[in-house]
Design goal:
This is SDR family oxidoreductase. Belongs to the short-chain dehydrogenases/reductases (SDR) family. It comes from Sphingomonas plantiphila. By secondary structure, this protein is α/β, with parallel strands linked by helices. It has a single domain, classed as NAD(P)-binding Rossmann-like Domain (Rossmann fold, 3-Layer(aba) Sandwich). It has a seven-stranded parallel β-sheet with strand order 3-2-1-4-5-6-7, sandwiched between helices. The protein is globular. The structure holds NADPH dihydro-nicotinamide-adenine-dinucleotide phosphate.
């Protein structure tokens, strides 16, 4: 039986791609999910789909760059389920702009969406998890935190920063039985992935593949931390 049975999982960026696939995969393991993203209608449709599959899900329209909205997300999760066992910091945007063409506004939008959001959600989740005596935070990084793509200074910096945030939180939280880890996907066929890759879909990972990795990292006894995963496509054109 999966350790995820009955556990409550908050997933950011759940309205499409890897986050949506993760919601389906967690519910298939018997978890309850809290879905956060800005596109409320897509979250509502996913709640219906998960309900039809026998799952329990709550949609909370959230801009994860907004500290108040993140607070409201965790308040809603606690009001409905009374606990948060797993947080998947998955929300993100891509960017392919050379440094000399990157406005300060664009720089902060990428950093806030991909990095500050994870800080805000972790800051809200950690006290809950410490009170519970256990918890797990999985940050979705990128291969760009290892090998930058061309013309992606803001994106690469955001994912490199997320790697550093993961390391720092992992050390700080482990004494309280809260595990913090990072999953770095290669190219995944999503709305975001399609924009950064010219490879055909059958040569890259699918959202369900990435979701399998995330669920695998979460489906562990509390005393273990699958600290880091780097998963890249294994086929070459
Ligand atoms: P998608 O574009 O399909 O999903 C991105 C999700 O992030 C959407 O649900 C979007 O929802 C959400 N999001 C974006 N901005 C915000 C915001 N301000 N507040 C709340 N939610 C937000 O792409 P992926 O599934 O591919 O991306 C998921 C993660 O995977 C990202 O962190 C990305 O960097 C990472 N990744 C993806 C790779 C790929 O090839 N696809 C490769 C490496 C890493 P909404 O617009 O409704 O708010």
């Amino acid at each position: 039986m999966s350790i995820l049975l009955g556990r409550v999982v908050v997933i950011t960026g759940a309205s499409s791609g890897i986050g949506e696939a993760s919601a389906l995969a967690f519910v298939a393991k018997g978890a309850k999910v809290v879905l956060a993203a800005r596109r409320a209608e897509r979250l509502d449709a996913l709640v219906s789909r998960l309900g039809a599959a026998g799952g329990e899900a709550l949609a909370v329209a959230t801009d994860v760059t907004d500290a108040d909205a993140v607070g409201a997300l965790f308040d809603a999760a606690m009001a409905r389920f009374g606990r948060v066992d797993v947080l998947v910091n998955n929300a993100g945007i891509a960017d392919s702009t050379p440094a000399e063409e990157t406005s300060l506004e664009l720089w902060w939008r990428v950093i806030d969406t991909n990095l500050t959001s994870a800080f805000l959600c972790a800051r809200a989740a950690i006290p809950i998890m410490k009170r519970q005596g256990h918890g797990r935070i999985i940050n979705v990084g990128s291969i760009s935190a290892k090998v930058p793509r061309a013309n992606s200074p803001a994106y690469s910096a955001s994912k490199w920063g997320l790697d550093g945030l993961t390391r720092s939180l992992a050390i700080d939280c482990r004494a309280d039985n809260v595990a913090v880890s990072v999953f770095h996907p290669g190219i995944v066929a999503t709305e975001l992935g399609g924009g950064i890759s010219s490879l055909p879909d059958d040569l890259v990972a699918q959202p369900e593949d990435a979701a399998d990795v995330i669920v695998h990292m979460a489906d562990l006894p509390d005393h273990l931390n699958f600290y880091e995963a780097l998963v890249v496509q294994n086929k070459i054109p």
